[in-house]
Amino acid sequence: MAWTPGTACAARIAALDLSPGQTQQLREMLDVFTTDALYTLLLGLDGSAALGGDQRHYTVLDEDGSVIAEEGDLEAAAYAWFHEGRSSQPRR
After folding, report:
1. What is the H or E stretch that residue 26 is in?
2. For residue 23, with 0-12 CB atoms within 10 Å meaning exposed, 13-18 middle and 19 or more buried, which class applies?
3. Is the separation of the CB atoms in 41 and 47 below 8 Å?
4. What are 67's strand-pairing partners?
5. Using one digit for the tens of pLDDT, what is the confidence trace for 8-62?
6. pTM value?
7. Rounded distance, CA 5 to CA 3, Å?
């Protein structure tokens, strides 16, 4: 998304006038940052990490009010996705 032409983010990156090597370093840094942020958010929703200084388990529901994941499911799926490079079905 950061590199999508026509977006504010892409315009700001272009304004930095980075060399190709610097652009690659920025891409890699943003990838690591995004991975860490999303992984932490999923762990926070699962109750395995604090969000805003508060650690608790949140119930994640779909639009029909059905539970999407039991406690521990998000942590397992997030670990598989972000650290093992594979998608995973939540365990039941």
Report:
1. helix 20-46
2. middle
3. no
4. 61
5. 999 999 999 999 999 999 999 998 998 889 888 888 888 888 888 888 888 888 9
6. 0.69
7. 6
